[in-house]
Amino acid sequence: MNVVVAIDGPAAAGKGTISKAVAAHFGMAYLDTGSLYRAVAARVLDGADAVAAARGLTAEHLAAPNLRSADVAQMASQVAALPQVRAALVEFQRDFAARPEGAVLDGRDIGTVICPDAQVKLFVTARPEIRARRRYDEQAAQGASDSFDMVLADVRARDERDMNRADAPLKPAGDAVLIDTSDLDIDAAVAAAIRAIAPQVSGAS
Ligand code: CDP
After folding, report:
1. Is the pLDDT at 195 greater than 90, yes or no?
2. C-alpha separations of 14 from 35, 94, 122, 135 in Å
3. What pLDDT score does 1 carry?
4. N or C end of the chain: which has fewer CB within 10 A?
5. What is the number of the ligand 1 atom nearest to the C-alpha of 155?
6. What pLDDT does residue 202 have?
7. Is residue 102 a contact partner of residue 3, using CB atoms and an 8 Å limit?
8. Which H or E run contains 79?
9. 143-175 pLDDT, tens per residue?
10. Residue 92 contacts by C-beta under 8 Å, 6 or more apart in sequence?
């Protein structure tokens, strides 16, 4: 049986790093669903209509070089509040989740809306200052000049918008395992995720 792992959580909590590592560990496919909203946002910043952009996303849009920028991230959380944008992206995500080798999807609403029947649901979080520090380090390494305070304000603004939107707000599924990475290094966070997932994988084979 195909195992689906849903990994949700706020901005810069470490979902991407953990998701990639566990997908590699269990030989599953991995989808960063944030990249879909970021790709729509990048097109909107180029003048496209958000709903049309979501309906017409291509592999080329998903490979745009600026998707990890701070401007794109803020616009992503704005377009992500539009129900028609979210609706246009549901089928692609559910098709991906059906991959025969099993699938890890990370985002905000995977365990609650996209894959409510996922066998494993993780909610990965960390204190806002720690998340902002990680994002600041990541952006500074790429040459960005935003101050730590600006990055922290961006992270807080995005969390606020993601948690308070009417459609598919960010929140842990009732049956999600909570992993707080504030005081964990990458290896410890990945190990905690593997411990939560492993029983379901062995039970499914
Ligand atoms: O990497 P980071 O945690 O900063 O963000 P991301 O996962 O790339 O997501 C960018 C934005 O897309 C989020 O702030 C959400 O507004 C939106 N998003 C969403 O609404 N639902 C998802 N499943 C994934 C992302």
Report:
1. yes
2. 15, 23, 12, 10
3. 74
4. C
5. 4
6. 84
7. yes
8. helix 70-79
9. 888 999 999 999 999 999 999 999 999 999 999
10. 36, 57
Q: Phi/psi of residue 177, each to 5°?
A: -90, 125
The verdict on pTM exceeding 0.85 is yes
Give the C-alpha separation, 155 to 131, whole Å. 8
Domains of the chain by residue range: 4-204
Question: Measured in angstroms, how far is the CA atom of residue 183 from the centroid of ligand 1?
Answer: 23
Alpha carbon of 73 to ligand 1 centroid (Å): 7
> For ligand 1, atom 9, which residue shows the shortest CA distance?
34
CB 8 within 8 A of CB 106: yes
Kindly give, in sequence order, each residue whose CB lies less than 8 Å from that of residue 57, ignoring residues fewer than 6 positions away: 36, 39, 40, 89, 92
> By alpha-carbon position, which residue is closest to atom 20 of ligand 1?
80
Tens-place pLDDT, residues 37-68? 999 999 999 999 999 999 999 999 999 999 99
**Mean pLDDT value across residues 17-36:** 98
Strand order in the sheet with 103-107: 29-32, 103-107, 4-8, 120-125, 177-180
Atom of ligand 1 nearest to the CA of 37: 12
Q: Is the pLDDT of residue 14 over 70?
A: yes
